[in-house]
Amino acid sequence: MLATSVGVKVFTATKAKEREELGEAVSLWLRQNGNPEILDTQLNQSSDNDYHCLSITLIYKK
Questions:
Q1: What is the reported pTM?
Q2: For position 59, what pLDDT does the model report?
Q3: Who's near 31: CB < 8 A, 6+ residues apart?
Q4: What is the rounded distance in angstroms from the CA atom of residue 36 to the CA atom of residue 53?
Q5: How many domains does the chain have?
Q6: Which of 5, 49, 50, 55 satisfies CB 3.0 to 4.6 Å to 12 for a cystine?
Q7: Residue 29 falls inside a structural domain
Q8: Is 48 helix (H, G, I), strand (E, B) or coil?
């Protein structure tokens, strides 16, 4: 059995404009990194009285 190298990339945004552009940031990173095979994704949102944070986590095969 061959060992597989796995990477994790996290994208986060707290400001409204950054959250709107987060998908494009992910797409750009994928293109710039040779469209790695995505093994899993996770989308999280958290907030308090002042901030709303959105994060996208990609687990990919290197």
A1: 0.85
A2: 97
A3: none
A4: 25
A5: 1
A6: 55
A7: yes
A8: coil
